[in-house]
Amino acid sequence: MITIRIERPQDAAPVRMVNEQAFGRAAEADIVDRLRGTCGDCLSLAAEEEDGDVVGHVLFSPAIVEGHESSVVGMGLAPLAVMPSRQRQGIGSALVRRGLETLRERGCPFVVVLGHPDYYPRFGFERASAHGLACQWAGLPDDAFMTLILDAGAMEGVSGVAAYRAEFNEAV
After folding, report:
1. What is the pTM of this model?
2. Which domains does the chain have, with CATH numbers?
């Protein structure tokens, strides 16, 4: 049985290991480590097995849409990581669902994700361009940059470039 919970201070090393194993590199783990110390508004969730092992992690951090007339702060989903031996068992989906549920409760207006276009639509994500949103990093496939609008009223008339925190620039 897997428990999805808020990341705890003692999870730093296991969360780093999950991200390094899942991505086969340190870039995503480095982002998580940097954000952990500077992002009070981040939502960091861990997937924990009954024996206490952390086998999955997701991070939601502030993302801003700078429009012509206004700006709106929502969240960016990244990274989502599951230990390779535990992938395709629903752990990633459980992390995303719990995160989105929490963000809805907190009144978050939108979530953006740069990810696989066959994976994220199951949670309601759609092409961001269909909502007038563009990714800060040019040249990425249009179908890979997606958004989930959680508060349509807050997003009414909002369009522009959606930007993740600066910590992500090094990994892209």
Report:
1. 0.95
2. 2-170 (3.40.630.30)
Name the residue with tokens 């999955």: 56
One-character DSSP codes across 156-171? TT--EEEE--GGGGGT
Extended strands (E) in 15-159: 43-49, 54-66, 71-82, 110-114, 126-127, 133-135, 145-149
Q: Give the closest residue to 57 by CA, choosing from 87, 33, 79.
A: 79
Mean pLDDT by 10 residues, the chain (172 residues): 96 98 96 90 97 97 86 96 97 98 97 97 98 93 97 92 90 62
Question: Closest by alpha carbon to 70, among 159, 136, 150?
Answer: 159
Task: Give 29's contacts (C-beta < 8 A, 6+ positions apart).
Answer: 15, 16, 17, 19, 20, 23
